[in-house]
Amino acid sequence: MDIPVLDRTPRVLRLHGADNVLIAVDAIAQGVSVSGLVARQRVMRGHKMALEPIASGAPIRKFGQIIGFASCDIQPGEHVHEHNCSFAAFERDYAYAADAKAEPVLPLEQQATFHGFRRADGKVGTRNYIGILTSVNCSATVSRLMAEEINRSGILDDYPNVDGVIPLVHGGGCALDIKGEGYEVLKRTQWGYATNPNMAAVVMVGLGCEGFQIGRWKEAYNIKESDTFRSMTIQEVGGTRKTVAAGVATIRDMLPVVERARREVVPASELMLALQCGGSDGYSGITANPALGAAVDLLVRHGGTAILSETPEIYGAEHLLTRRAATREIGEKLVGVIKWWEDYTERNRMNMNNNPSPGNKAGGLTTILEKSLGAAAKGGTTTMTGVYHYAEKVDAKGFVFMDTPGYDPVSATGQVAGGANVLCFTTGRGSAYGCKPTPSIKLATNTPMYKQMIDDMDINCGDILDGVSLEDKGREIFDTILRVASGERSKSEKFGYGDAEFVPWQIGATM
Fold first, then answer.
1. pTM assigned to the model
2. Which of 163, 206, 317, 458 has the highest Cβ tally under 10 A?
């Protein structure tokens, strides 16, 4: 994705007065003079160049924060990357709640609005789906066959208000400790999807003998059979053919009920926005992520909620979030989550700097510290009002954090289970992703990739490098969120992404 060196002087950025590296907006050829420095090697776009001498062991700073330490002496004009910048842990000042402040919310009559589906419990959906949930991988094929038969029949043409029927299958549900953490996570995730406001009706399909028993799950949440919830197992119904037929008949019965839902004008305070980034690059923390952060600040001002997640990708930036915690307890809960991850990775013979990925590094990101500082920018600047475990129901308004892995499908699954009814996804390398039942809006960090993958990207944030302000781009993102929430289909939805992206977090041993 690199572009040729331009005839004009390549553009560079110094993001903070304390930084000792510059960011190459354009590729810089060896020997070219930029900002009074001569490039000692070619520096690809999005990558870093030393601004001043950096002694071996000294911190390397970007965003005014430490992103790594020099592994050898670095001279001005040198390319700074994996070969001379290394990760190391260091103490941070968490300054709990030091920057917390009361966030003014616009009066209801001044809040932006969208057209959503008001559910019986008062929540508002942006989509109107029927979901086929599976208790175990053993019922995955049957669930897919149900959806395929419904889609093949053409019956959905008679129900234009129904967005579709989605088989949400996964790889777990058995060979797990039914009293353990992994079971509890799956239980919460299934309940979260069943009650997400974008889900109008649900069929839960099991095998019958699995560890994740549907009856136990229904009892835990006091779930009753109704015209919008039905459950069945293959063993009880009598095999594959009979279960598919029973499921199709059930969905046919649900369709008229789901079709009755109608969109109505509702305030933006009913939006719960999931924040994701994937295929990040050196521009992510400069363009799309802070622009999305500006949109989050707008959403919070209009009374809505935004969920930042991907705990391994805020590692090294958590001290910036603890300062914004509404209370010390909220900040300490985040630090507790970080310590859990340090222990979790150590137990599995990994380390937190296993992230960034090879693609992230090719795009200019060197360490997890650098990636995290850019990723945290998605959360804007407002006070952090809550910290949630994976797939927990989010009940706070404003900016919150949910503990999830950094792997996008797993992370987004937790956020949707928490109640997210719309999602924004920033990408610099070009991630192909969608998320049923929650629409995903793709934000490109740079113009070349946006043009290269124009069929997948909804918004170009690369024009920030050409002078568009973060404030204006944030407004554009916010307006797009409102339109998509009102029914406008994102590009990933037009492609049909989302059927295979339900990936609950599997914690613990597979027995």
1. 0.95
2. 206
